[in-house]
Amino acid sequence: MSELAQVDFNSESVKKLVADILQEAKQQGATNAEVEIGINKGFSVTVRKGSVESIEYNQDKSIEIMVYQGKRRGCASLSDFRFEAIRAAVTAACNIARFTDEDPFAGLADKDQLAFNYPNLDLAFPWAISVEQAIELASTCEAQALAKDKRITNSEGASVSTGDALGAYGNSHGFIGLYPSTRHEMSCALIAKKGKEMQRDYSYTVALDPTLLESTEQVAQEAVDRTVRRLGSRRLKTQKVPVIFIAEEARRLLGHFLGAIQGGALYRKSSFLLDHLGKQIFPEHISLDERPHLVKTLGSAPFDDDGVATYPKFFIENGILKNYALGTYSARKLGMKSTGNAGGIFNLFITTGNKTLAELLKSMGTGLLVTELMGQGVNLVTGDYSRGACGFWVDKGEIQYPVEEITIAGNLVDMYRNLIEVGCDVDVRGNIRTGSILLDNMMVAGD
Hints:
Blueprint: H1 12-27, E1 32-48, E2 51-69, E3 72-78, H2 83-99, H3 131-146, E4 152-171, E5 176-194, E6 197-207, H4 216-228, E7 239-245, H5 247-260, H6 263-267, E8 288-290, E9 313-317, E10 320-321, H7 328-333, E11 348-350, H8 357-364, E12 367-374, E13 384-395, E14 398-411, H9 412-417, E15 419-422, E16 432-433, E17 437-445
Parallel strand pairs: 7-12, 11-16
Antiparallel strand pairs: 1-2, 1-4, 2-3, 4-5, 5-6, 7-17, 8-9, 8-11, 9-10, 12-13, 13-14, 14-17, 15-17
Helix pairs in contact: 3-4
């Protein structure tokens, strides 16, 4: 069991270090201060063609110190936990604060928003696995995949990783909070060949509890299925058709919405959803809500990066934009209050229907099933969307053949408004929980 695994939820040593740094900042003349400590430890192994390709260990420690002289602020960061180094960092931060311009929006979060009574969300499940055992697991996964289909001719490797983390935050309002978390992952990437054609794809499983990881057999089978089904890919003629994003890619589609409601994008006026509170963004049957306090769940957090208590909320309710995602600084810039989202969104859920992916294909009839997106062609200022894609052509509700080297294009405003249905095949491997998404007509550019 790792060292971090033995640090309990109320680790007094880390709390004392945070308190000592805050006291040091006060003694050096800071009117206020905040401290963030991160400790990470873990390793990853990669096996390719039965041989160990890499073993990587990571053990990182960091301290971020922000001090305030009124509305002036200075920041220093370090990885040296000796107190003489910390004292020097506090001195440097205080010197910076003395010479920076005043920022009327700078400062700690309001005391009444801090998570003084935060819940234990049970996010740490250390994996008592040795490097040798991880290598054996990766080797088994790869060997199973290579044996399943003669068209699988090569491997880009199978990997297993495990990590423990402890995050702590405290400030001069008397708040100090911390919680441990874990993340474990296994993946396999393959190459299939038919004639002169070669295709690549992969599969992975991730969880904070290692007992919830899929088996090597499941990962191997999915990697094989995804890879061989891409053989025989064709291009399409340019046309406008309905599009389904599989759950994995639907997650990224919703990620653009989250980027557009982030406070930083809003106060910089670089979001197509600026001044859209109270307006219809999605159809009435769609809601998007945040559930940050789910126990034993990737993506949960009891407080945000400012120490503000996280809480359940709707960003979209019956299609209407109800909230932006704000941290303390961005909220003040916008004349609003923090929503407990400094650092991001914690478990976003979308309203799902009761149709499987196969049933969504039937509903679509003829169109494109997108299984992979490429490129960065998304403009959050205008909402313009253009991504390279590959997937499958669908006719009469059935997959006909794989397609590649195409581009799908539209505008996020129209795409969200024309969202027809969300499937029940929810992907739980990230902090955005969604099934496959069926959209009305999009431009598909090919030949």
